[in-house]
Design a protein that fits this description.
Layout (H helix, E strand, L loop, with lengths): L1 H18 L9 E2 L8 E2 L27 H14 L12 E2 L4 H4 L18 E8 L5 E2 L19 E2 L11 E3 L7 E4 L2 E5 L11 E5 L8 E10 L2 E5 L12 E3 L12 E6 L6 H5 L3 H5 L17 E3 L5 E3 L11 H11 L45 H11 L11 H12 L2 H4 L4 E2 L24 E2 L7 E3 L22 E3 L6 H8 L11 H6 L6 H8 L3 H12 L2
Antiparallel strand pairs: 1-2, 3-6, 4-5, 4-14, 7-13, 8-9, 9-12, 10-11, 10-13, 11-12, 15-16, 17-18, 19-20
Length: about 550
């Protein structure tokens, strides 16, 4: 009965959210069938509504002991987190995935996964080194301001939706005749009126003769179903099939010398991490007292207020707070612009639309004219509330093998970096959409929890080099070989859901992930490799219980 009431409440929140969208940003929705299914006027199916939020004690549920008002914030934030975003709500013009849930939710859609979970999807980051030794994010900033859309690869564009007039993905006519080359001039014929214009960049995809594929500037539009471009490859046979779109998604540029794969983290328990006192992290810098040659570094970066503090989030610890981590993702993954509003200082936000591959794009491909598109920070605040109130995954009950494995974990040096516990600060409150704060939340205040991380950067050696050396606004200490100590809580769930471990999801087993450690971890790995079969079995039992 309680779950049914919460479903009704959630659906009411969704309806109110839709009613709040200006009418010129809404789609024409055709009435649903007898099963409640619906379609947009362009034939696209409406995304499924989310199921009700999980309850306390359920996987993906909130922290225990929340007041009814805090539970309401969790439920409301869940409704925002599970939205499948659309160009009318600011998505794009290019993006990695159309929603937070797509990466942080495992399932095919919101009906088959759990909000906040991890999954097998990975992202790509790219950049290159400058001649003076600085790193070039290829984002148009810095000493060498080359804008090639970096450092986040956005593999989808708003043209794929088919909901915006003038922002199109079109089917190329079949062979022969769909793609024809004469000298260096290529003529593309589409199966319907394309709406493309001279000077736009068009992207050809999946044409069987691969020389036609790529991004090209439209030279002429002879008819409503044809356009031409100049090719760099000649002598191509007639072809056809595939698709073309007038807003290309991004590709890794040819001059990028650093290309990195990143996994999508699970978000359970991050409200506790967010409230570790800075002093507790700084007290462990250098990992004092250890005899294993380990010396961690706090990544000192600016928070949303411009105050330099130790980072706690991201594989390079480039975000200080959960709020900052969320609005960074809102822009860098979804393409939704944001700026300082009730909270933060202007220099830390992203008020300007991302240029796909650093190039201009058709105005028709971004219909949300709000500036910023996250008005008054409402979305980022709600999503942060949800994330902050997510309960961590509890470990399995201990037994003699698990207890013995913890002893091995400590003895061989794993716990120097993977520290068992922290205690949150007192009197924790959350930001609210009104610009104020909630009452004190006991479930986040003075709570001792076990993340198994020191939240410091460690040099993992050349065998684990990679990633973008995140140094936002010229600050930070992360190098290519330095990584955050990955929290081990929820380890078994992460391996099961994502089928891999480490920053790039590239290690298929716990043993493979351990052996991949190098640099500062060399002595500890040597200890691990010298374990007896009994100690190794117990260690694996302990790690598998997390």
């Amino acid at each position: 009965m309680q779950r049914s009431a919460r479903l009704v409440s959630l659906l009411l929140l969704v309806v109110l959210g839709i009613l709040a969208i200006p009418s010129h940003f809404t789609h024409h929705v055709i009435a649903g069938d007898t099963h409640g299914n619906c379609t947009f006027s362009n034939g696209h199916s409406c995304p499924p509504p989310p199921p009700p939020p999980p309850l306390v004690g359920q996987f993906g549920g909130p922290l225990a002991g929340l007041s009814s008002s805090m539970t309401g914030l969790f439920d409301g934030g869940y409704g925002t987190f599970t939205i499948k975003w659309d160009p009318i709500l600011g998505l794009g013009p290019v993006f990695t995935q159309p929603g937070c849930f797509t990466c942080h939710g495992t399932g095919v859609d919101v009906l088959t996964g759990t909000a906040g979970d991890t999954g097998p999807l990975t992202g790509t980051r790219y950049g290159k080194w400058n001649s003076d030794g600085t790193f070039n994010y290829l984002d148009g900033n810095g000493t060498f301001p080359e804008n090639e859309g970096g450092p986040t690869l956005h593999g989808s564009s708003n043209a794929t939706f088919g909901t915006l007039p003038g922002c199109n993905q079109m089917t190329i006519a079949a062979s022969p005749g769909g793609a024809v080359e004469s000298g260096s001039k290529v003529t593309i014929t589409t199966t319907a009126a394309h709406g493309f214009k001279v000077g736009q960049t068009a992207q050809m995809l999946n044409v069987p003769v691969s020389g036609y594929n790529g991004q090209f500037t439209i030279v002429s539009v002879p008819s409503t179903t044809t356009f031409t471009y100049t090719n760099t490859v000649t002598g191509l046979a007639d072809s056809g099939g595939g698709v073309t779109q007038n807003l290309p998604h991004e590709v890794v540029p040819t001059d990028a010398t650093v290309v990195s794969t990143v996994r999508s983290p699970q978000l359970f328990g991050l409200g506790l991490v967010d409230n570790i006192p800075d002093s507790a992290i700084l007290a462990n810098v250098g990992n004092p007292g250890n005899t294993f040659g380990i010396s961690g570094v706090a990544n000192m970066v600016a928070d949303e207020n411009g105050v330099v503090r130790p980072g706690k989030f991201g594989q390079k610890l480039n975000s200080v707070s959960l709020f900052q981590f969320t609005f960074n993702a809102e822009f860098n993954e979804l393409g939704i612009t944001n700026k300082a509003g009730p909270f933060g200082t202007a220099s830390q936000f992203f008020p300007t639309e991302h240029l796909p591959q650093g190039l201009s794009y058709p105005n028709s491909c971004q219909s949300d004219t709000n500036s910023p598109q996250d008005v008054e920070q409402a979305n980022m605040i709600k999503m942060t509330q949800f994330e902050a109130l997510l309960a961590p995954i509890p470990p399995q009950p201990s037994n003699s093998s698990i207890a013995a494995g913890l002893v091995v974990f400590n003895n061989i040096g794993c716990s120097v970096c993977h520290m068992e516990s922290f205690t949150t600060q007192a009197n924790v409150k959350l930001k609210t959409t009104s610009g104020g704060q909630t009452a004190v939340i006991p479930s986040l205040s003075n709570v001792t929890f076990n993340p198994y991380s020191d939240f410091l950067l460690h040099n993992m050696g050349t065998g684990d080099s990679g990633g973008i050396p995140f140094q936002p606004f010229g600050t930070g200490q992360a190098t290519l070989t330095m990584w955050r100590t990955a929290p081990l809580w929820g380890l078994n769930n992460a391996l099961t859901k994502a089928s891999g471990l480490m920053h790039d999801n590239g290690s298929a087993t716990i043993t493979a992930a351990i052996n991949r450690h190098g640099g500062e971890a060399t002595t500890v790995i040597s200890n691990f490799q010298g374990l007896s079969s009994t100690d190794l079995s117990n260690l694996m039992a302990f790690l598998g219980s997390l």
